[in-house]
Amino acid sequence: MRKPLLFLALSLLFSFALRAEENRLLDKEITLKVENERLDDFLNRLSQEVGGVFSYSPSVIDIEKRISGEFTNESCREILEAVFQGSIQYKEKGNYIIISPAPPPEKEITISGYLVDENSGERIRNATVYDPITLKSSTTDEFGFFEIEVKNPSENFELIINQERYSDTLLVDQKRSSFSRVFLTKETAETLTKPMKDFLQWAKESIGVRNSKNVRDTLSRKFQFSILPFVGTNSKLSGNVVNDYSVNLLGGYSAGTNKFEIGGLFNLDRGEVSGLQLAGLFNQVGGDVRGAQFAGLANVNLDSLSGFQGAGIINFNLRDVKGVQASPLLNISGGNTQGFQGSALINYTHRNVEGVQAAILGNIAGGAVNGFQFGLFNYADSVKGASIGLLSFVRKGYHTVEIGADEIYPTNIALRTGTRAFYNILSAGIRPEQADSVTWSFGYGIGTSPRLGKKLYLNFELNTSQMNKGNVLATNLISRAYLGLDYQLAKGVALYAGPSFNIRIFDTSYDDHPETFAYFTPRVFGRNTFESQNLGQELWWGFRAGIRFF
Question: Among 315, 381, 323, which residue's Cα sits nearest to residue 343?
Fold first, then answer.
């Protein structure tokens, strides 16, 4: 039983779809010749040709009027316009064409017609026809038909016709309801302009976005209010209007904003934004932003920023940033950054940074940094300033591998990375004593190395390492402050040496610590114990020396 019912439902649905497609009675093209025929007889014959029924009151039209004419491949709509000369209005409902008197022209006029390619004769769909004063607009359907009703038209009333593949056309001096067939000229490849960025991929075929592509004029308004994109005072032409002030209950779509814009959820601007922009969720701007942006989730700009960006999750700029980006998650600049990027997670600048990048997790600069980076991890191509963090890598920065010795280990290995202004040190030391017991350490430090002469540099470093014996880890920390000299023997090779001040903090409850010193014992002073914490302390002066490879 279910299959017949399903088949019946699908059949009905299909028949309704066919009828909906066929019921465009007014747009059916027919060929008809009339010679001195009564109007009512003419309408009956016309109804048979189009496959519909005319519904009208005899008091509305003069049914005894005689009609003569020849119509070749013209739509039913065009034939009615030629016969009645705009004295009636009509609408299609199901299989009926309902005829009624046209309203007085001084109160309301209706401009309608077909847009046609002047070369091919094909109807032009998805074109925009609009009034630049009231922003009333219409988009041609699949038959190329448009219709605009205008109340109280001005003396200089005019309509503008735009389609992205055709030259702009102007309709002027329309002082009463009229119908016309308008021919458009297709632009050549040399004169076509590139379409503007499309921010609404999810609605790119909507009438409002289609209007934004078709209409090349930029309109201006002091104020606009919208509930959603294309539902507001600027209607379906909102994507072509630059507003001084814009208030969007849920969200809005405009060509740009000059002074202030607020959206309950979002703001979408195809062009530039100046002043202040606020959104509950996100702002998206296709041009430059000059001023301040605040959004609960994200600010997305497809050009440059000059001012301030604050977002709950992410700030994104496709090009340069001049000013401040601040967010708890992520800041992105697709060009250069001049100013400050501050984030709890990551800052990213594709090119150069002139200023400061500060993030808890990390900073990335694809080009040069003329300023500072502060973060656990930093990366840059080059730095004139400092990258300060747990670990920094500067591609054209300071990178050395060091092999040396001190009073504790005959062999120390260390890696330095960052810049000479500030670098990180990863170190390890080893002292073989017995086959089954090796004293070893691992450590971390920071340092700076200012230039003293052509080949001579000063080193000041702070380092802490954990000293172990075998595979047992008991608290045995040695912290060192080192001040020494670095002399470059040749390109990529340097010798270093200098004194150090050392503090050892160790677990007094553990009695199998390795011997602190290897081959000579410096004078140890400042011995102390902290019994409540089972910790001991020792101080001494030491010495370090070795070779470095760049």
Answer: 315
